[in-house]
Amino acid sequence: MPPKKEEAKDGKDGEKAGAPDAVLPTDGDGQVVPAEEGAPEAVAEEGGDDAEGKGTLKGKATKRASFNLKGLFGAKSEAQEEIRNPDDRTRWWELLLSIRGFENVTTDTLKLFWTVSLSSENPKKHKSRVRLQTKFTPIFTLAKGQVFTADNPIILYNRKTFNLSYKELEKHVVKVDMWQVSCWTFNEYYGVRKAKLSQIANRDPNMEMRILKKLSKADMADKKKSKSLQDVALFRCRANLEEIFDFDLYCDNWTLELNKKNKEYDQVKNERKRLTLTFPRDSRTPPGAKRFLGKGAASQTVEWNKDDGRFFWASCGKYVFRGTRTHLQNSYFIVSVLTGKPMSFIADNPTVQTLERYAPAQPHRVLGRCLMNLTSVLDMSVFQGKVKRFTPDAARYIVGDLNGNVKAILRSKGMKEPEFDFRGERPEQLKTATTVSHLNPSERYLVLRVKKCESLPVADVDTGSSDPYLRVTWDNMVMLSPIIMQSLRPVFNQSFYFPVRQVFAEMRMGSKAERKYQETILRYELVSKGTLKIEVWDDDVTSADYLGGTQVTLGDILNVRGQDKRNLLGGIKEEKPDEDEDELQPKQKKTSQWYEKERMVRVFDGTRTALAASSIANKDTALIHFESYFFPDWAETLRFEDSTVAESAESVWANKEKKWNLANETKAAEYAVPFPDSIGGKKCKEEHGGQTADQLRRFPCIGLHPLIRVETPLMAYLSAIIIPEEWSFPAKLLEWVHCLTFEISMRQVRTGLIPSDGWKDPEFVLARRKGAAQDHAILLCSLLLGCKQDAYVVKGTIFSKEVFSIDKRDTLIEHSWVMTRHKGWVTFWEPCSRQMYHLPNRYNPKKTKKRRGAKEEVKEELPIEEEEPEEDDNGMQWEGEVADACVRLEDMETLPTIGRMPKPKMRVAGKKKGEDKGREKLKEELIAQRESLFIAPNRNMLQQNNLVTWLPYDSIEVVFNQANCWANRQNHHPACILFDLDVDDDDGGPRQWEPFLKEGEEAEFPFQPICPSVSVQPELKSNVVDTLQEDLRTEMMQNLQLYRGKKGMDTMFDHNEELMAQLKIFLDMQEVWRQLDPDSHDATRILDGYEETPKDLLPAAMSEQQHFWKYMIETMKLARWNTLGSPYFQDASSSKDYQKDQARLWALMQKLFSEFRKKEDSFPIKRGKKFHGFPVHFCTSDQESIRRYLMQIPAYKAMMDMTEEDIYYTIECNMIGRLGGILSVWLYVGIQEPLREADAEA
What we know:
This protein has about 1250 residues and is an alpha+beta fold. Helix content is about 25%, strand content about 25%.
């Protein structure tokens, strides 16, 4: 019978029907008893896609409560005692289960069908508390070894909900039964497999279950047969089991930055602004469904910004979303920016602000709207987006940038407060691609269906195979496929669904405005979403190998001629009548789900598309088979003429690079005349392929795109990455990037040159979690740009040990690091060594850009900006001045040089007494003339208040950020130049830095970032880190045993709890040390305190503070990196949070030291032994790499080769998670050896 009218009404609105506790009776005090306390058993909902909140649950709950009211609420005190344990509290769950395929592993042909059910693991001991109907599949016939892969998933349970506690989850299972069909007798119960719900809720939803043969009772009684169970099939399915939560979303610290290029900037910059935030309440109430607010969406308007010129709002309200993690991550919210000129006495009135929170009444207009996806809200609290205006004028479309924080606090459905007493980890599955059951019928989707890959490169040499998976990106959304283990020809049959979301409600699917503004607003919106990237990666927990990728532009899809029939599940197969159809086999009923509706769409066929850009050698071309289309399709008239066609883009940037290189060659030739043997005088163009960095000084401006392999400007590799504030502190940020594994290609090692395809975008680097020095610089610069710093990537040269040289001599190689500018300071960030070099007075932040011919004079405030003496016009005519000069080689030593200039050979003879005075005078004139050159070292930089004690860099060629690239036209050494990038000389003289894109060329050379928005993955789960930590420790122990065993020596270990606890404290100290800034105030106090401490003071007379000072100076080698200080500790206003964080870390370091020192005299080792060892830090968790590195350490080799018998080894491992799945790995290797007489006397 259909539900009653009242129940059906409740079922429409998820907010009303989603709270089953509202229909339960009250207790003796008149309070409503929630379902979590009163319900003794779970009731499953059979309501289909929108099962949560259907009338079925209400009717059942009412019936159960009225049936045994006294028994249900009689023992209230006992229920309260049980609810004290968080594991006993009832939770709501949502289940989606579908079959992907199966395989016959027997030697017979099987005619079978499957049944799937949810039940108690042991029904005799524990009654099942889930009531879901058993599901049956059609009949299939599989030959011996045949694999069946479903073209479309066979959905059995579609978003069914039920309630169970965490403890009950352990006692319930998903049971898969395999039945063999017989036409003449009863069907045979052939195989069975069970999987606990607790395991499903904590693992990858893509499962592979080994079906074991079902034994009869007689066979089960036979012990031999019961132990030797055989596999009969492999059952592959997708099981999404997620808990339903009430997410509390708190919005704070929102900032608006107006776009200065917008036509209305001058008009709106002086108006006051306010924000209206609209959030969904659940997965069925998107903010932009039918109206702007959407059905059931929650909306709040904040007060006007303060009348101080800043558009900032500290608090923007609290919102509640009900659903699973997947529902939340598939949702979005909209922020509207309102502008106007309200009267201050009304706008700043608290009472008016409260009244207008839900219905703004003061005169205003909508300046623009911003749509933000909640994909990463559970991992990252920082959000950033573009505010767009509903206008066809491209110059007014982008209003500005909006960023702020959205903090999500989860609580189980129906609970009023977060569970602060819950200490464990809630069940959570790995994030994968969205299934069709999670889609919204009112939205349009970009569908990508990947069938298979062929001829993939071998990532694992040991197995000769790879573990590939797909990583697909579009519109800042990332989706992953299941991992296919050990296959070079993986069959995915995976569909990816990307919702096409638009911020304007007027542009909803099928509206008149969508057709009217098809060539303007719609085109602007689609272009901003970027290209569809398809990448194939090899699976690894801590790193990944890139197997190849490709990309599809929107023009590739929309410019297809002709249409094909498709639905959201893929292609439509025509059913052919089967003449030999078995009459006893039941026919599968046709479903009528909305996503199976057929439509005519334009389909881009990507069959046999080449996968490019993999660094792994492959004899064959890797291929991928896929198709992509929009469902429903756009209007037939919507087509894209790609403005960035590969051929045209390549030619444009190639021609620009040729002009750039010609200018660089001219400047290099001019530099080589006065400084022929310096780095700046080297040639800047390769003449043949065998040249190295020791022979060249290159000025790169473009690289090869990682996917499409076309020439791309270096500026496109950068993208501002937003991260939480606690990760944005300089020392911690530098330490985080340093933990990324370093890996350099052999070509770069051999030549010392950064190849054109050696530049990678930050998204690629984070996905791979390893890269060369330039990859670390790109990532660090992108992070600093996201922190609103004036950051640049620097390409220069350094001297390094040559790997392939026999004598290991120093050779010049290209290197990359990061530069920031802050209030006159220039800071070099070195990711390879975690050091920051601060150069004071290197640029003037108040100095405006000077244009040629301008007569305005700028007041100079910094000492480095004092005017230089005017050069004579003939000063640059070096050739005419020195044509007849005779300067001997021995005189060249006294000329001022910067860097490591090679010494010329000395000539003993050749001097004449009569020539001494003339030659000395000529030499002085030449030195003075050379020092006045523009390319000579800036003498102001050699003054005491500007002098840098040491820099590891020997030259600097180019710097670039998101907007432009600049070439250094001053002296080659970075310590002796200025960094005013946009300053011209007053009288038309040479520029300090020459830009790659001249003023006004932005329109002629447009470019887009390779990845406009990069999302950083969260830290690895603690259980994953613990497993990796224990695996590494076990591997190192086995390696030690195997090595000594080959030499006939025994290996004993001592891992008692007290010893391991001490070593854990010690490794924690080492980890904190990596995040400390040696230029901080606390470091200065330690250095000063150590200097004041008498050196002959005995340890017994020293205070705890003095012990700490001594340890930091003598053991940890604390020293000042920058003698002139740091800008982060001289500016208290802008860096106060960083200074507080450093003070906290120094206090933590001292606390750990004191805790470790307490047991120094009673160190927990065996009697008669002495203990010593060493810690090692690794930027990788790869066991093979760590083992190889350890074998190169002499101390480790000496420990392994000790021949004494009475020795004990200790190995401790400590891994600390970082954002992006990066790990900081510490390994301590210690040994206890017999105490000798000399040691005892000491």
